[in-house]
Each structure stands twice: as structure tokens, then as C-alpha cells.
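Quick start: what a row looks like.
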Amino acid sequence: MDNNNIQARKGLLPTWRGLGRHLGVFLLLSLVSAGSGAEQDRLFFAGGDDPALTELIQSRVEARFGNRLDLAPYNQQTASDALVLTASADALAEVRANNPDQPVVSLFSTSGETKRIIDSAGRFSAIYSDPPLDRQLELGQLIIPRARTVAILSSREQADSFDQVIDSAERLGLEARVFVVSSPDTLIRDLTRALAYGDFVLGTPDSRIFNRNTVKPLLLTSYRRNRLVIGPTRPFVRAGSVASTYTPAEDQVDEGLQLVEAWFETGELPDPRYPDEFQVIINEQVARSMNLPLPGEESLRESLISREDEQ
């Protein structure tokens, strides 16, 4: 073999070795890409002012989606077609004000707050944070089987929104009536009228009536007249309401992520709804002081689930 051929062969050796190295890197990257699955989807998050709640949402996203979904903070530069998960009514209002067409899944906002913010249901879904009033009605009937009448306190703004509740009460053999509170100054007077009518008062998510400023006079007046209040929330039960249903934060987040998953799978958002999962809380001290024998919380929960399954 002449010197020219020898040099040519020597020149080729590094070329093939280099190609082999590049081929090895390519195969390695291919294996990594195959193991990591499809390209990450991105979910934007608004309302992360509560560190514990933010941590909960992050952990539940990781548990449900693993590396398939990246959770990023929302801002005004977020793409108009990107899905945003909100964790408060204020965050929902901010996102909707920035872009009325932004796809949104809302958590930790009541049905009343949500409906005041959202003009149309397009590209919007929610897990409401308040319990459905139908469920609360049934809880009241389980606790007071002799009940025949239900009083509902309402602000003027909400007075026309209880037709479905009145129909549900009728289906249960109950007669429900709405008592409008004209102003904060007339709360006790209007409450007294309601207590004279109803076997129990059904608490609602109407924040003009049920709030931190009214909780004490409202519950004390009801207690003195030997009338029970059902709901509207777990804090009200701790303050003196006899019982309520509620959905723990973990379950609200998990059900909200079901809506998120539907969006990434279909490009559509399911209708807003109340949570399916729930617990029952009882104020046993109030029940005992009113000589009211109650089943346990889990027993009441199972009875409510059974009733809902039959519907």
C-alpha cells in the first residue's frame, strides 16, 4: 500500500470515530425523550397569596400529572389562550378583567362570588367552595325530621335567586320562604320574622347576610328562640350553627384538577359545579344545649350520599 492510501485511511479514522460519538449522543437523547413522554403542558396559577394553599395546589398537581404539567405564575403577559387556575375570588376577578376570554378554572370562590364576576360561561369552569343548598336542605331534614318549614334570609340583591331551592324544598316535603333583609340595621328584626316562620334557618352563601360581623348576633338570636341554623359554612358551625356540609381543600383541588385534565384532553371545559366529595360537621355543644339527639357526622354523611345516589 502506498503512502497516499495509508494517509487517506489514517484521515478517515477520526471521521468515523467522530460520527460514532455523535450517533451515540443522538441515541442517548432519543432514549431520554422517549422516557419523558410528550411535551409538557403548562397551567398558569393566580391567587397564590396563601403559601400553604399554594403548596397544596403544587403538591396535588405533581401527584396527578407528574412531569406532564408545568405550573407557572400568571401575569398580564400570559398567553390569551392559556388555561389559568385561580384560587380566590379576587384572583378570578383580576384574570377576567385582564381578558374576558381567558380560559379559567376557578377554585375557592363561592357560587355567588363566581356568578357576580362571570358574565358568560364560555371557556370557564369552577368547583364552587360553598356547599349546594339542596344538600344543606337534606341535612336539615335529617337533623330535624319533624321540620315542615324552612326560612331563608336574603339580601335584596339575592332575593330572586332561590327559586330552585324552594322547588327542592317542596320535593322534600318542606315549605321554604325567603325573608329579605332590607339593610344591616334591620337584620335582627327580619331574622325574628324568619325564626317565627321556619323550623330551621338555611344559611346561604349570601355574604351580605352571613359574614364575620353578623355571625354572633344572628346565631345568638336564633339560639335564644330555640331555632337551629344549618350552615352556611364550617366556620359558622364552630361559631354556633348546628351543622353543615363542607368540602376539604384537598378534595376541592383534586376535583378542580379533573376540570384541568379535561381541558388538556379535549380543549373544552366542563360546566361549573359544586364538589362531589364532602364531609359533615356538627356543633355537638349546641345540639346538647337544645336537647337535640344527633347521629354521628359520618352517619349523616352516609345518609346524604345514599339520598343523592337515589336521585
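That is the whole record. The mean pLDDT is 88. The two ends are 93 Å apart (CA to CA).
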